[in-house]
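Supplementary Note 3. Input sequence used for the single-chain structure prediction.
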Amino acid sequence: MNAKQLSKIVFIIVLLFLLVLIGLNNKQMVGFTLPPIITKSVQQPAAIMYFAFFAVGVLAGAVLTTGTGLKGGGRGGGGTKSSKS
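The predicted structure, written as discrete structure tokens, is reproduced below.
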């Protein structure tokens, strides 16, 4: 395990810890309206709303960071392999 992987794991653990803290401390009800899509106001605890927005952000980040699936010809890679006969 290298330092980059370890830092990512620590970052995710800290984010999950913050989600738990928010869930424990924000129990009041809040309203959410989005007139073009949701015509009726949604009433949920603040922690649930935060978790929902966090999940949408994670999904958006995953979609934006996924590759195109094309093999070869990308950045790096070091050139072509020669075949020996």
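Residues 32 and 42 are 5 Å apart (CA to CA). The two ends are 38 Å apart (CA to CA).
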